[in-house]
Every structure is written in C-alpha cells, then in structure tokens.
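Example 168, ligand zinc ion.
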Amino acid sequence: MMSVLLLNTTYEPMYVVSLRRAVTLVLQNKAHLVECLERSVRSPSLTLPEPSVIRLHGRAPVARQRALPLSRTAILARDAYTCQYCGLALPAGRLTIDHVLPQSRGGGWSWTNLVAACPACNAIKADRTPQEAGMALLRPPGKPIGVQAALLHDAQRNPAWRPYLWTN
Ligand SMILES: [Zn+2]
C-alpha cells in the first residue's frame, strides 16, 4: 500500500496517510499536490498524478509533535544508511556513528553532532574535525521534526519526502 506524506500549511510533516485518503483530500480541495510520482491514479471520471507529498489548505488538526528519541538507529535512518562523508550506502550493521566534533574535544551525543559514517571514513577522520581532516559532510546533520522512527524508514522508500522530514 502506497503511503503519502501529509504536510501542514507551513510544510511541517503531520501524518502519513494512505494513497486513497490523500486522493480524497485533494479531490475535496482540502489539500494540494506537492510532490507527485510519474504514474497516475485513475478513476472513471478523472486522472491525477499519484501524490507522494501533499499539503493541507488552511488550518489542520494539530498533530502532537512526538520527539524522536536519539539513537544509533535513528541517526542511521535520518542519514538514509549512507556515509555522510563519501556517500557510500551500507547495511546498518556495517555503518559506524561519527562524532562530527570528536568526543575528545567535547563533542556530544546529539542530533547535530552525529552522522552515519563508513568504517573507512571514520578511521581516516579519527579524532579530527571534518575541516582538519579535509572531509566535507554531504549535508549538515539536523534534528528530525515531528516524525516517528517509522516515518524515517518510510522516507528511504520515498526520497521525495526527505526534504520535509528534518531541518538542517
Ligand atoms: Zn565513507
């Protein structure tokens, strides 16, 4: 079953809804398409590009913004199981967590200081900052906003969602 990311008016992720529900919201003019897939949804009366991300019009019921607990799994999911230095995608078990500012320099266990790294990059970087090591991050690590771990996993299958799921 395809799922669709529902954003509120300020582009914050609210819920994941079924494709059917998303199409209904669009047809009722309660939401509009933000990101679509290349295929279409057909009904006897119309054809609509299949939505991947939709945005509500007007005021939406306020979703409780559940904080996503910081964990190794959550960091890896946020980073799409991809080394944030070289871009290599690896299974979770083969990735390491790198402290951007090393622990030895006071770098903490936080959303903005932890990234997924392949063992090679982690070893090369060692106890240095990315700048000292001459290694650039693919993107600055951010804290996911208002989403649950499950949603992050869904984001792997739905690359179009990723820009909406966390702040940089
Ligand atoms: Zn790497």
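Summary: The first helix runs from residue 19 to 27.
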